[in-house]
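Quick one: structure tokens for this chain, please?
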Amino acid sequence: MQQPVWLISLQDLDADARAIQLGAVAGLELAAGQNDFVGDPLRMMLAGLAEDSRRPYVIEAGGEAVGVLTLQSGAARLAGWPDDASAWLLRGFLIDRRRQGQGLGPLAAAKAVETAAKLTARLEGGEAGVVLSVNVRNAAGLAAYRRAGFVDHGEYLGGGSGPQRTMYRSFALPGSAG
């Protein structure tokens, strides 16, 4: 049985709880070569807290921090999407190297879409889904996003990490229009 994953919003925590979560994030480790695709987890979370459009999350499974991700509004073009307003940007997504290969990535990516849908409803935004870009050399990332229901929307050559694939998942249920 797959263990559930939870997204802990750093913005919604008090200072003490946030400090505990950031301490756990500081202990996350990247796999060899992963720094080509994603930055330092602690720096990404701190950057997320410093910018109003970003919502940083700690990914928890089994009562421990296993990764991080950020949802950002108004920035979908950074992933090769045609506009900034119709989708949340999923960025800075990583699973600790010691927990990779356990199916947590697809679960957390799907949970990010669910969370973005709730944010859109709460904030009365116009987003209809979540977009991301993933490096073409990141085979594990491409596979994980596909398992989470993201659909490839073509090549994206922006950014500094080389060729990317733009991937999108609608808030609509998989298999429905949208």
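The first strand starts at residue 5 and ends at 9.
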